[in-house]
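Sample A.
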Amino acid sequence: MDDLILETIESYNNYLQVVPNGCLKIAERLREDQIAVALNDIKDFSEGVIWLIDAGILLSKNNVDVSLDINQIQDFLNEINTGLQIKDYNLVGDLFEYEIAEFFKAIALIKNHIEQ
């Protein structure tokens, strides 16, 4: 298997493992009225999940089994955007803590693929 694919798998798995804690941090900051910091974290989260989606598509095209529900992620991003537009930071915090963090905890990591 191509080194780029193996590196992408490693980065993908590493990112999947840190997303749930990042979601909890965002929720905590929203609840502690650290809105500016939380908004920056949400921007980073959004960029990160877009990278995950792009990486998942690339990996799938290279016959790597990826179990990432892109539609669910897009739904989350829309819900976050809606909550931020109406400045309902408690709603957005709950979304990150109870839905998004749990969603990412449940995603299976990609098993190592070794060329035979």
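Sample B, a different protein:
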Amino acid sequence: MPEALVIGAGPAGLMAAEVLAQAGHAVLVAEGKPSPARKFLMAGKSGLNLTKAEDQACFEAVYRAPFLLPALRAFGPDAVQDWARGLGQEVFTGSSGRVFPKAMKGSPLLRAWLARLSGLGVELRSRWRWAGFEGTALRFETPEGARLLAPRTTVLALGGASWARLGSDGAWVPWLTAKGVQIAPWQPANMGFRIDWSPQMARQFGQPVKGGLLRVLDVGSDRPLDAQRGEFVISARGLEGGGIYAVSRALRDGGRLEIDLLPDLNDEAITTRLARMKPGESTANRLRKLGLGAAAVALVMEFARSTPFAALKHLHIPLQGPRPLDEAISVAGGIAAASLTETMELRALPGIFAAGEMLDWEAPTGGYLLTGCLATGRWAGQAAARYLAQMG
């Protein structure tokens, strides 16, 4: 019977296991999938964005979740970088402030981390899927059959409800709800949006639109709700990519999308450039000469064919809602702050702590998500270690 149990072997769970083991406790990590940290590895395939190097106040502001602040202040961007270096993974900071390991991928860091955990005596059991409570014990479905565990303390780090095939399926919600834990409804975060394209847009699927300014406006008043410069991609399903993800929260909450395709040119400069062009040139050629790529030209012709030049600074994009929850990079919703103590212990279940995407917070991509998971895992793990120490 383990002294400390961690359920979920993603970044939050592994960090909780690390600090518990460093405090001298015997730790068992139960992971439902055949191998640990699958979503972490998937994220790392295109470059593992560990954190964001920026002013701490600016960093904290993106979370809009006051209950996370103590954890983020205890393990912020600088601490994340030091932790990665401690695992033998040198890091570098890109021009946007995003921090990556020099190896770029997640697998070298994960291998080093698992080796450290093994050296600390942490036991990892794969294909151990949590199946709820049985009395005061936690029930698991394992390759050897059902198992019941009653550890002295537990850290839950089961993820949210997106990318179910990688392990985050939200199956735990009814079990905690039945115990009196309040769960905020799931919503997609950092997701693409659906658009019903005309047939001629098919040739642009997979193509990026670069250099634009994406604005989200209040539907009733046209008051700006958010604005970000960024690249996004035209896909068969709609729009996706970093630029869209950066404004996805405001769009999900009811704003409308408007794109300034030439943010470095004002109206006067555009008019002057158009006046210098030869008479009789096609609209598409004129748009290209203004500096638009083929995908951006296609967007203008799709949504503003009758007034293409007037729309360059204010191209309205009609969206048909967000992509499904399971396609989202992350989620909003989860265990409500009111159900947690300041140490992330569940008020309804003393001795059980929670961390990572199970909690009701969201953040944009760019290093914020991973830092949030690491920080809350560390915070919950330290609290669980103190709980054990107080029990004697």
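Observation for Sample B: DSSP finds 13 helices and 21 strands in the chain.
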